[in-house]
Amino acid sequence: MIIAECGFGNANRKLQIRYLKFEFRNRPGGKDSRMAYLLNFVYCLLLILALPKLLWGAIFAGKYREGFAAKFLGRVPQRRDEAPCIWLHAVSVGEVNLIGTLVQRIESTWDGWQIVISTTTKTGYDLACKRYARHTVMYCPLDFSWAVKTAMRRVRPNLFVLAELELWPNLLRYAGRLGAKTAVINGRLSERSFRGYRRIRWFLRPLLAQLDLVAAQNETYADRFLALGARRDAVTVTGSLKFDGAETQRDNPATLRLKRLAGFHDHDLIFLAGSTQAPEELVALSVFRRLAEQHANLRLVLVPRHPERFAEVASILDRSGVPWQRRSELSSPTGPTERKPILLVDAVGELGAWWGAAQVGFVGGSLSTRGGQNMIEPAAYGAAVSFGPNTWNFRDIVAIMLEAQAGVVVRDEAELLAFVGRCLDDPIYAAALGRRAQQLVRSQLGATTRTLERLAAIVDQPTQLQPSNRAA
Q1: Which of 238, 245, 293, 429 could form an SS bridge with 215, CB 3.0 to 4.6 Å?
Q2: Cis omega before residue 467 (within 30°)?
Q3: Separation between Cα atoms, residue 84 and residue 162, nearest integer Å
């Protein structure tokens, strides 16, 4: 610290000007400072390059408009008391749902701890506000050093937890500087991601070495984290939280309410295509139209992955000529009362409950280039589950499902038509497929307990852990 004194005329006043002199070679943390400046430069450059897309999304899709102060300045809600705090970062809708069981267990076993949940996307933020209304929910700051430093000082977490894999250097660095323990839970590294990360292993190694815990989903992922530089004493295998978060009872209150709302009857055959991307809605619609000729009680439920596509899918249904209705109209007093054969679920966060109404399911993002979506939820309900061949995001789960004959891969519209048709014509086949899927999910439960045990250990938190009874 250098102090300069300046005199101002006859007033004899002195102004003390304090500023930091960054001496990178002699000052502790100088290397970190250089890295922070470099990262800020790279982030600014990427932001400039992405600006046209961001503006387009903000103007025409309503995206990126919220949370500016939190994202760019770190102006997140400030904690006032000194209670211990866990900050859980869940990027979007999938991760927000993923941490549900963990949040419940922390609430019931970590006495006095405050829970702060951050997310990146608007849909994730809206869902988190709805699901975790008792806790502080905020947008996560972008990884600019000034934003991260401000946010960390306002939240003051004792434990900073990233869901799956969100390794932002400044977030981790400033969490560590404030004395917070850092962890990755439900960690996964696909083969594709691993190949890419190996090219920058020189950069990732010190970052991963900072982590106090890497709770990986399986041994393969654990080995990949170790190969990239995570400490051996920090890496452990806990299983996938996705299994613990899955509801297994079809008569749960949320599903029953939605079935009543939609007017579903016990004799209805529900074919649900969930988390769909273009052109999967067209494929599912074509399959439905061909099979509805032989099965008058067949109904189709479409749940697009992204809210900004609701209008696009609605236009597809309008052009089809088949009667349909929106989920948002079902709760309206002036909405339609007539039962329609097709339902478009234009709501966020309900897919898990809608799966409980389906006898036959197709999990989207798998005929497109998305890499697949969560197929555990329909499997947990005992639905006959199908998905396309492009499921690298869930490769390990798909592998054990196929090994247990608990799911079916359909490569195109013709194979989906054959699968759904067989399930409708042969209920015994569909029931057996669903039963194996549900048994598989139940056999994988327990990741939440193992994860919470490891988190408690790194913060010396005594906790009475009780096994989850979700599948009981």
Answers
A1: 238
A2: no
A3: 18
Beta strands in 84-198 (DSSP E): 85-89, 114-119, 136-139, 159-163, 181-187
Could you tell me the strand order of the sheet in which 342-344 lies? 324-326, 342-344, 298-304, 269-276, 360-363, 384-387, 408-409
What's the half-sphere exposure (Cβ side, CA atoms, 13 Å) at 269? 20
Dist CA 312 CA 276 (whole Å) = 12
**Catalytic residue IDs:** 95
Q: How far, rounded to the nearest angstrom, does the alpha carbon of residue 388 sit from its chain's CA centroid?
A: 21
Q: Which two tokens stand for residue 359?
A: 């006898």
Q: What is the pTM of this model?
A: 0.73
Torsion angles phi and psi, residue 394, rounded to 5: -125, 35
Joined together, the tokens standing for residue 321 give 């000529």
Q: Domains in the chain and their CATH numbers?
A: 69-239+446-458 (3.40.50.11720), 253-443 (3.40.50.2000)
Tokens at 86, concatenated: 């866990």
CB 109 within 8 A of CB 465: yes
**Residue in 39, 46, 57, 282 with CA at minimum distance from that of residue 147:** 39
